[in-house]
Amino acid sequence: MTEEKKSGLDAIDEGPTASDAATPTGGGTAGDPADHASVQGLMAQFSDAVMRHRVNAGDQHVVWIDAARSHEMLTWLRDDPDQLYDMMSDVTGLDYGGGRPVEVVYQMYSTTHKHILRLRCELPLDALEIDSVCDLWKSANWLEREVYDLFGVTFKGHPDLRRILMPDDYAEGHPLRKDFPLRGRFSRAEQTRRALNQEVERYYLAEDLDTGLVPQEAPTAEVRRAEDAGGDL
Amino acid sequence: MSQKTLEINVGRQEMGADGLPVPSPIAPFDIPEPDIGTEHMLINIGPQHPATHGVLRLVCELDGETVKKVVPHIGYLHSSFEKLGEYRTWNQIVPLTDRMDYLAPLIYNCAYVMSVEKLMGIEVTERCKVVRVILMELDRIFGHLLWLGTTAIDVGAFTPFLYSFQERERIYKMHESLTGARITTSATRVGGMMADLPEGWIDQLKHFLDTFPDTLAEVHHLLTGNLIHIGRTQGIGAISAADAINYGFTGPNLRASGVDYDLRKDRPYYDYETYDFEVPVGEHGDCYDRYLCRMEEMKQSVSLLRQAIDRLPGGPINVEDPNISLPSKTDAMSDMESMIHHFKLITDGIPAPEGDCYLGIEASKGELGMYLVAEEGSTKPIRWRVRPPSFVNLSVIPKLAEGHLVSDLIMINASLDIVLGEIDR
User: Fold this and answer.
1) Which domains does chain A have, with CATH numbers?
2) Could you tell me the residue ranges of all domains in chain B?
3) CATH superfamily, region B81-319+403-424
4) Which of A77, A192, B125, B313 maximizes the CB count within 10 A of its CB?
5) Strand arrangement, sheet containing B383-387
6) ipTM over 0.90
7) Least CB-CB distance to B118: which of A12, A57, A138?
8) pLDDT tens-place string over residues B115-172
9) In chain A, whose CA is at the least distance from the CA of B422?
10) CA–CA separation, B389 vs A87, rounded Å?
11) For the segment A40-95, what is each residue's pLDDT rounded down to a tens digit?
């Protein structure tokens, strides 16, 4: 029992506890590269850049690769005739918290060989950047923007790296990181104050904000009476 | 199969025999450009606009009426479901899932628990598998019907909208009698379902299956050979097969381009390989082929539903493991041990093994992937990622709409079948 009593709303702020940084196995069982042709190929081609290989959830092969060589390896996976991973299903981020590296996760599928493969790249917290794969798969465009937006990972060579789900001027950081509190960094009052104090000049051109021409004079009561009577002035 | 090929050809008979397309009657006339100074114009469609099918903002750069560039802006519905999920136990996440794709909520419910079960190595009962197949196929029809109605209304056809929403209403009623809710169903639980099918539900479904194909045939009659519909959709927003794969298209959008990729066939789950059904594939990759693919998919879903009803086995719907399934409500209210069991399972949650799991299923809009990461014994996910099909499908719109008219942009946007709830999450 802790000293302080927690209200229901405080209890919701308890996220999953960050694990011990010393045991990053990634779960599952140690994989046998012979079970998956692409893992075997990756190990033969880039033996020094493949860091770990596990089999998770029964039959899903996961390969941890060196982030510095990720672009080279992904290019090979896309173009090698035995691999031909032509579909980048998903690019996403992953943060364990507790000082462990942020990871970028790629889900790939080969429509020719019907292989599925998951790659994970670990990025240390002080160097959150990796090569963009937007030049290889166009589908990575928005997916990488989302990882940038929610995790703060910079994708080098991305054509249009902007926030996508959060507003462009969002100042509270990257929401899916474990150090980001569930209800935001700013108080509700501060969030409201910022929303109300936005500078309209940032979003509109000067002529849009102009009040327009000199307003037309409404006819005076005298003129209207004369018109109603059918007389001419 | 033969019928499918026939349908794809129905509309294309309007094309010339020598391979050159015959201009459709409502195609714009070839008027020479007047020699006047013009400039590009920026217009803003949305965020609140009926033709964007949600809270989507499209900033278009126009040359006259021709779209030069489209920049979609999303995020207006962002609810940070993925962050919320990290603070909830496995079963508490289920209600978040149906709020993403509120047009076909049961598919999301099923996809999420399937991924959790895969992560934990739980094998659900045979009855549960077939019930989930029934629910997923029913909601595929449900999702496609909304697409059909709203898309038809975008090209000016009002009647199919009324037909399809009438049919949707019947599915809403089935949702209601099964789960108590029309949209926010939350029907699944890890290891089974919230409840078994109620009495008479299958008869309700059978009646729907007997009458729904008639409605579908009427809509076919109204739209498939309709010259206005053909003029608005054929050759609009076309994309080649290689581009469609590279841009990440999945679902009917990808199959309309001629790629035979359906997760129910390519990476089958829940014994889909034992059902007898066809995957309709288009060849032109334009709005018309996307229309034909979805129309045929509804037909196939009706056949799948009939097969699933025939093989629906008896037996329990939840797994027998007390660490996963709750005791019955009657027991929990009358028996002390069952009440403790219920209390422990609700407060503690279900522990997961360390690892990660990605499971993609064929949702009504494309490949719906659920990626889960857990640590040893954690009752909440470290990361819950939804790979939303509409998100990736929508990102292609700048390519599809370039060079078309503004009115075609509306049609292209409609033909992608997006739902902003899952795009923004």
Assistant:
1) 25-166 (3.30.460.80)
2) 81-319+403-424
3) Cytochrome-c3 Hydrogenase, chain B (1.10.645.10)
4) A77
5) B355-363, B366-374, B383-387
6) no
7) A57
8) 999 999 899 999 999 999 999 999 999 999 999 999 998 888 889 999 999 999 999 9
9) A165
10) 13
11) 888 888 888 888 888 888 788 899 998 888 999 999 999 888 888 989 999 999 99
